[in-house]
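Final report, closing paragraph on structural work. Over the funding period we assembled a curated collection of sequence-structure pairs, and we close with a single example.
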Amino acid sequence: MLKVVVFTVIILLVCVVLLCVRMIIKKNGSFPNTHVGGNSSLRKKGVKCAQAQDFEDRIRMNLFERLEKNF
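Its predicted structure, as stored:
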């Protein structure tokens, strides 16, 4: 049982180190931005995340449209 726990902990540590290689090696390294807004080719096409699109739609609606949508 103890061998399995030690083996599992070692595997998890190796995985964490491999995931953090970019952060550890590069000065001021960080994880890559995987959000839709962080992708330049999607931004050029006008694709945004659902939250940003919803926010923009709410801003564009007037009071009557907002009330109509909620009721």
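The longest helix spans residues 2-19. The CA atoms of residues 1 and 46 lie 54 Å apart. We thank the funder for supporting this effort.
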